[in-house]
Structure formats: structure tokens, C-alpha cells
Batch of 4 targets.
Target 1
Amino acid sequence: MKNIAQYAFLPVLTILFLGAETAAAHDPVFGLGPHTLYKGGVEIHAGGHREKSGDESETEAELQFKYGLTGDWVAGIGIPYVRSGDVDDRWGSTNLSTKYRFWRHDIFGVQESMAVLGKVMLDDGEGLHGVEPDGNDYLVGLTYGYEGRKWYRWASVRHRFNADTTTGAERPNVWLVDLVGGIRLAPTEYHEPDWVWMLELNGELIERVSQGTGSAEKQLGGNQWFLSPGLMWTYRNFAIKAGVQFPLFDDLSQDQEKGDYRALVELEWHL
């Protein structure tokens, strides 16, 4: 089986040499912002996400393409490839997404905006942790962003509707809440490399459900919160984002997996 890194970074090497002239705003590392594209703009993401829970670990590489339908409306597709532990490689669920910015306010050096979003995780591959959903998963959300010359802030709330498994087991739905602050320590020009440092508070409010019966019954759900330092480095139309999520607080049911840490690295181009 080919190494997962090939799927994440071979496309990256290919598009690294493509040029572009238009810079654009960006979203935070783990949370979500209202950033869209100009009409006809293309955005390409290639990244890797690693998650560890107890003795289990999972690494996901994903390639995403987004297209600006208008200056306020973007649509995209994501193709993930997943490795569980050191042996189990598989294609994940293809996802289709869209985001619409319905409000924008510009003043000198500052842009504020809000957007609604939706995503469909298709039933064409295995989900995370080897779960096989019996149908599509759906996500809807609302996000706000403030981007200035020095200070950044984002807030978002999303709700994920999960289909049951192919064995009929109920999968809990999840609320996702993100609060993010960012700072640019020194102002830069477009042609200069730029750093933005971020700190995120990410919450997962998981519906409490029971799976199985008798001695095989499992209690799932509960709440968990992560504190997530991250950074974004940009140079013209190219960006690298990276961050780590550390558990801050949890109130999980006895059989719900508790995350030890999560890490994300993402490369992003605006064409």
C-alpha cells in the first residue's frame, strides 16, 4: 500500500509552480470563517490531519478544490484518504461544500463579514474510525469574521447530522463551536511574507445515545473542549496553516472516545 503522504503532497508539488496574482483572506486553522473567493477564483488545499485517542490513532490526508461562483458564494469538493494505525488504508467519504457570505462591512483597514455554509459527506467511503455510515452525513453552520491589519477574530457554530451505521447503530449528532483570536505582530506588505498567530477554543457537544443492548450496550456522547494554538504563514497567494488541539475539559459518556491531541497542517493556494 502506498504511503499516505504521496496522496497528500504529490498534487502539492504539481501545483506549486502555478502562478497567481490575487491575494485573499483566509479562515482559521480548526474553526471556520466567512472567507469566500472572487468570481471565477480557484482555491486548492492539500493537508494532513492526525488524531490520537488512547491506543488508537488516525491520519487523514485530504485534497480540496473550491471555486468562486460569485464574489460571495463558493462551492467545493474534498477527497480524503485515511490511515488507521499503521496498516489500514482506505478512501474516506467525498464531501461537497458551499458557503454564502450574506453580510460584509468594510472600513479602513478592517473587514467584517458573516456567512452561512453547508456540507454533505457522501456515503461513498468509510468514515472516521472505520465507521461505515448507511447514508450521507450533513453539516450546516453560521460563521463571523473580523480581519484587521493587526487583530483577527472569528466565531462559528455548526451542526452535523450523522446517519446511522450499516449495522443500524445510532451515531450521535454533534454541535461544533469555535472562538478564535489572532494577531499580526508586525504589519507587512502584500509582496512580503506574513505571520498571523492564533489561539482557538474549539468545542464539541456530542448527542448522548446508546448503542447495542445488554452487556454489549455502549453509552456515547458528551462534551469536550480543546485549546488550540496555531499559526498562518502567507506569501502572496500561498499559505501554510498549522495547529495542535489540546484537551481542555470533557464531560463524556463512559464509552465515548476521549481525544489525546489532534494536529493539522494545510497548504493553500489561491489561483
Note: Residues 85 and 230 are 25 Å apart (CA to CA).
Target 2
Amino acid sequence: MKLSDLQDYKLGNRMVHYESRDAILYALAVGAKSLETDLVYERDLRVLPAYACALGLWVVEAAGELGVYDRKYSLHASQTLEIIRPLPISGNFETSGKITGVWDKGKAALLDIEVECEYFRASYRIFLPGLGGWGGERGSAIEPVDEESGDSWSGNYVTSPEQASLYRLTGDLHPIHIDPVVAKANSFERPILHGLCTLGIVARMIAEAVGMHPSKLTKLDARLSSPVLPGDVIEVKANRTRTGGSGSMGLTFEASVGRTFVLKSGRATFA
């Protein structure tokens, strides 16, 4: 099987199961505090919507297990999420996955891998260095970011040295986040933070920009432009947009470490 053969490849169905303690672990891994009892206490629990990205990650693993590329040398390039129904406190439901795009970028390739179920639809764009150049389609350009309204917000989050070690317990066991040898083989000085952890941290933070609870997130989209190292300070900037219907709030956002952007072209909707 060649990389180009993966277009529209069906990855099958899988039951996803989690308990309230798993949702709480995710919330803690993306920076929720003990005083945020509705994120970390079973009695009041509201599940963070971005947890869906962790629940659906099996499709990325399934694509890697096809043997067409070495997953150890793949990188997460961007993420989209649409919430259809709020995630329950605990869940046991069927998800389905398929590869929706295979793009030739010359020296590299991109895969778009989608998972969906009754609660959410998510798409993972995976960067495969050194695997382009077969003459395939390059893919469409990035959609323009929504117009900003002028209302801005900023904040920062100090990641802990153990952040990646904790987040991997939510299900993303890629060795680049824990194994120094694999990290160096991918040209990183040490294990990097999961892109979905960075995105989860930021998605939780930016709810403050629109004065809404982070559980009200309904849409999320961002490019994972550069990795965060555990211990880095993530600086976040967000702007209200004019999108969204009655009762919904739109945002554009970006995140950086120093002068390096780690999230670009971010868009989110809360309702």
C-alpha cells in the first residue's frame, strides 16, 4: 500500500469508553485548578469539550498502524473540532474514522484523518516529513480568519516540567512526548508537549475572553505551528469576532512562547 492509496480509506468503528475520573484527569492535564470544582469534582462535573480530541485519537493511531509511514516521525499539524452534543460525565459510545485527505506538499505529505460520533466530529491533520513528491494534489489553501471586532483579551499559562508526562495518560502515548531518544531523532532537544495539550490549555483559557464557561465550547480550529517544551510559558491573545448567531460568541486566537507562535489561525465558538 502506498501513501496515495489512503485517500478515503475507512478506519472502521471503535467503542469509546471513559469514566468521570478520566474526564477529570484530562481537565487537570490542561491546567484546571482544584478550585474549579465543576471541572475536577464528580458532583458538579462538566466535561471539557476539547476532551473529544483525546477520545478520537485512536484514528491517528489506526492510520499509523497501516504501515505506510512510521508514526514515530509524524507530527500533528492542525486540529478541528465540532461539538454536536455535550459530552456526558461518563460515556460509552461508537465512533467511526476515515482518512479524508492525502496531500503532496513536495518534500512532505499531509494526512487529514476524521473521527465522528453522536457527540462530536474531529479532524486531525498529520505532517509526514520526507514523504511527498509523488505528484499528488497539494490541497486547498487555508481559509481566511474571521474579521475581528476589536475586543481583545490576553493571558498566559506556565506549563509544568511534568505536563507532557501527565497529559499522555489521557491516551496520546506517542514516544516523542516522553522518550528523549525519539525526541532527538525528530530534531527536538527533549520531549515536547502534545499539540492537543497546548490546544486544550488555550481552549480552556479563552473562554474567559467571552465571559463563558469553557464547557460551552462548540467549535475549535487551529494550526499547531511549533511545539511547546514542558516548562515553557504560553502567551495567549484572543479577539472577539462578528461571527455566530444569537447566544454564541466567536473568537480568533493565537498562542506563542517568546517570539515563536505555537498556535496560529485559531478560531473558536462558544454557545
Note: The beta strands are 10-18, 75-83, 91-104, 108-116, 120-129, 148-158, 217-224, 233-241, 249-257, 260-270.
Target 3
Amino acid sequence: MAVRQAQEKYRLSQRRACRAVQISQRVARYQPVKREDEDDLRSRIIELACNYGRYGYRRITALLHAEGWRVNHKRVERIWREEGLKVPQKQPKRRRLWLNDGSCIRLRPEHKNHVWSYDFVEDKLSNKRKVRWLNIIDEYSRECLASIPRRSWKHQDIIETLSGLFITKGCPAYIRSDNGSEFTAIVLRDWLRELNIGTAYIEPGSPWENGYCESFNARMRDEFLNGEILDTLTEAEILTRRWVNTYNTVRPHSSLGYRPPAPQAVLKSA
């Protein structure tokens, strides 16, 4: 660009213009070679950016790798910047249209089913009625084991939810939580003790001690709840299941090497 400007302004030859701006003629003559898959890759990056509006170029790179693209994050970042893509600070909520058929222990997780954690996330429907989601995650795999919206929760409801998970997933060694009344109920604690499951309660006023679940809650609010207008509890249940499935099987997780917590298994035909 500088060589061309010097040539046009002072009517110089390319050799003299290169000497004036101190650039090699080889550099000035260089023409980038467009790769054969450039247009397809660019279109796919734009499509993924539209589908996953809160993902940056690194997670988009991970999704491309999962699809079989051989591309590094620098090339994706270049296209990302050329297309003016960026992660929006805040997305407007949108309404969906439905068809008729439609004691505190400092411990680190060492393996699956070692430590689970659970917590609540609260939001409102379009009619301003509150809904509370009970989120349960495996701290080691980062898999969301359950995310269930209800208008209210009692310790009996939590026992019922955990019972189903224990049957399908097995029992953890510990369950971590804050000191909410639903989690500290004597009936719940006694029931967990009978199953030889330890309860790890965080210090009051220290939500960072339940960091795994707090991080999940933040991702859920940022990528799901802040972008949806929910009219009914049924709609909340359906969209929650859809988002959790994407979170577990598609969404790249930075602490897992940009792999999803529970990727779908692909069976190859013989």
C-alpha cells in the first residue's frame, strides 16, 4: 500500500518507490494465494457465529475441528476480524414460535462421580412470574447432569431429582452446595448420609467456593436465559433441555481443551 501511494503521488517506478519507503521489491510484488476452501470456510465461520452468538473465535475453531476442518485459530481469527465479527455484549431477548406438534470441605474432583455440585438460578417468565432452575453438575467432567425449572423447590423435590440421577448416573462421593434451606434440610442430609454421600457446604457469603456450579450458572444466563423470552413453564423446560444438550455435547469447554463435556459418540458402519 505504501509503495503504491508513493508511485502515484511522486510518479516513481516501483524500484525507486520501494527504496524510498525501505521495502523489498519482493515484498511489494507479493500477491497472497487464496486457498481453495477459503470461501467455504468463511461461510461456515459466519454461520457458526450466527448460531452461537456468545462464542468467540477460539470456540468457533474448536467447533470447526469437531466438524473435520483442518484450520488453526490464527486463520479463523483473521477471517473473524475481516468479517467484522465480535461477541456482542448483550443480545436482545426473543420469543419462540411453537407448532402444534411440538461442613465445608476443601476438595478437588479427581474423577467422575467424585464431586457433584448443585445450585439454583432464578429468572422470570414474560408474565413476571419467577422460575427457579435446579442445576446439578459433575465437577470433574463439567457435564450438566440436570437443569430443571420449577416455580418453587422443596427438599422433597431435590430428593426426588437426585434419586433419578443416582439410578442412571451412580452416586457421587460428595455433593457440594451453598447453605440454602433446601440443601441444609435435615431430611435431605440424613438421606444422603444413609447413602454414604458426603455433604460439602461452602462458607456463608463465599459463592466462589462453589465455583464450578457458579461458572455453569453464569454460562447458562449469558448464553441461554438472557436471550430468551419464556412465556410458560413448559416452554422453559423444552428450551432448557435443548440448551443443556448443546452444552454437554457441542459447546467447547476451555478447561477441557475446547472439547464438550459429553461429546456424542459416532458409530462408524462396518
Note: Residues 97-105, 266-270 have pLDDT under 50 and may be disordered.
Target 4
Amino acid sequence: MLTSIQAGPADAPQLVLLHGITSSAAANWPSIAHWSQRGWRVIALDARGHGLSPRWQPQQLLRAGQQLVDDVVEVLEYLPTPTAGPKPILIGHSMGAATAAVVASQRPDLVSALVLEDPARYGTRSPSELLRRGQARANHVRRTLVDLPASLAALLENAGTPGQPSAQEALPALWASQQMDQSLLETGVVAPEVEFTQLMQSITLPTLLLTGDRRGEARVGAQLLAQLMEQNPHICGQVMPGAGHQVRRANPQAYYDVVDAFLQAQVPASATP
């Protein structure tokens, strides 16, 4: 089973956090702190091959996208039922957001709502392009591991730049890249193998979709977000000015303001943290 970091009251409404590729539960610590201090039960997962979770086996890589989904379903089935509040709410970024959406599509009985931060979009690139991008990402990770002090110094130098890890996040982010099982990168898989617009149309749960307005960086963007909201009334959305793919990092306060309001609307008043 996937490893996790858990914080907050044991009987409180549950938030399950799913990180993006090359990240980890530990790198999600700002969100863990934010929501656990506000009375939520936060369960931040290490995806397979990330953090301290089990490594990828060759046969699992043949169905890597669905394996990401199955791993989360296993955790959700194992979680104790909270004494108050709804079923868990999934909050994901990039690969984690795409995984959360497929989990909700396949097993809506396990989830009450979704928060999707600029999901990775399956079906927008050819298999050969995905492989090239995966190899490039793997090579970048290997380069960071050659000289860890220099890699940390580079992260700290860029800290504060919109979309980049803060100074407090730099070390967990570097640790996450050290722990990454690069076999997933080499497959090119960054999302479960479900075409993105069809996936979004299949969702039947309240969903908040956040994206940025930086063209070439945001995976969803304003135009597609408007289309998705028109096609599916369960989806509401927000375009964060100045953000690219890393919406929270671009403007943490604006991100938490929007997400907190959505979360409060999903929980009965009697169970509100």
C-alpha cells in the first residue's frame, strides 16, 4: 500500500492529497499544514515510485496509468469512515489531479468531491512525444543528483519566482526527486490513459478545477476550462492570473482562498472543521 503523511484530528472530514510526478507527500507540507491546522484530517499520499511508497515492478509499468488509480482506490477502501462529514475529498496536482479525476469517474462511491490543480491531460501528445518528454525529464532528474548542493542552491536562488518552490519547499522538493523511481519517467506516462475531455465529461461529483493563464505553461487554460464547465455542470473553475502549471505556488493565498471556500461548501455545517 502507498505510504502517507497524516495530520489533523482523526475523526475530522478527510482530504486526500495527490502530488504531481517527481514530487512526494513531504513536498506537499505547506498544504498539509494549512488544512490540518484548520481542522481537516489530511492524508497526503506518496504515489507509487515516489517518496517512500513501493517501487514500480515491470508488469505494473505496462499499465502504469491504471496502476496509479488502483493504488489510490486501495487507500480509500482502507481509510476509516469519519464519524462526521462526507466521504474523502481528493485534492490533486498535475498527475495527481488526473489520477483523482479517474478515481472519481471509476469509483464515485469512494469520493465526495474533487479539487484539480491544472491536471495532466492524456491524449494531447503522441506516444513518441511522451517518451521523448519522459526521457528528458529523467535526464533532468539524473543531472540534479550529480551535484545535490548545487541543485539545492539553484532551487534556493529561484525561490520566490512564481511557480517555483519556496525556500521552505526547496529541500523537500529535492528530496522527492532523489526518491523518484525513474522507470515511470522513462515510460512517458504522466496521467491515467483516459482521454481528458471525455474524462471531465464523465465526472458526476462537485469539482473545482484550477488553472493558470500563462500560455504554454498551463495544461488546461481559460479556454478549455470554459468549455469543460459548459459541458459538465458539476465542474466549477477558476483561472489564476499569472499562474502556469504550478497554480498554488504562483499565488498561495489566492489558491487557498478559492479552495477553502469550495471545501467548506462540501461539508455539512454540523461537520465543518
Note: Strands lie at 4-7, 14-18, 41-45, 89-93, 113-117, 207-212, 235-240.
